[in-house]
Amino acid sequence: MSHPLLTISEIHTYYGDSYVLQGVSLTLRKGQIAAILGRNGMGKTTLIRSVAGLTPPRNGDIIYRDKSLRGQPPYAIAQAGIAIVPQGRRIFRSLSVRENLLMPTSVLARSARASNGREMGQRWDFNEVLKEFPQLAEPSG
User: What's the pTM value of the predicted model, to 2 decimals?
Assistant: First the structure.
């Protein structure tokens, strides 16, 4: 069996005093797909936000490609290859699809550096996006 790509170990996440995720664990290997199901308010979005560093867990760990994400800022986690794709909102309506996808390559994203001065994670590569979603490369007509 392949080495885990993402391991979530016993994370506990809160919003203030509200205890939302209580010891959630999950392991994903390369090529696997997982679906997180549940009613409203069950913690699905909180789990994704915890992995992305937007609502960091108080306890537990998240390991991505053999590196702990614990204590990493959201931009570093995004540069490592984890991102949230919103449900049709939180985009810049005045920009094209291509321009919205290129936002992570902006001057702000390029200027993010690790404390030792080296770049963190992998760069967003628009050509890789086009390989996954070739219809974005087709001229609209």
Answer: 0.64
Over the chain (141 residues), what is each successive 10-residue block's mean pLDDT?
Answer: 91 95 95 92 94 96 95 92 75 80 62 48 65 72 52
Number of domains the chain contains: 2
Rounded to a whole number of angstroms, the distance between the first and last alpha carbons of the chain is 46
Residues 64 and 99 in one domain: no
Structure tokens at 15: 């919003």
Provide the domain limits for residue 130. 87-141
Specify whether the CB–CB gap between 102 and 126 falls below 8 A.
Answer: yes
Q: Are residues 136 and 103 in the same domain?
A: yes
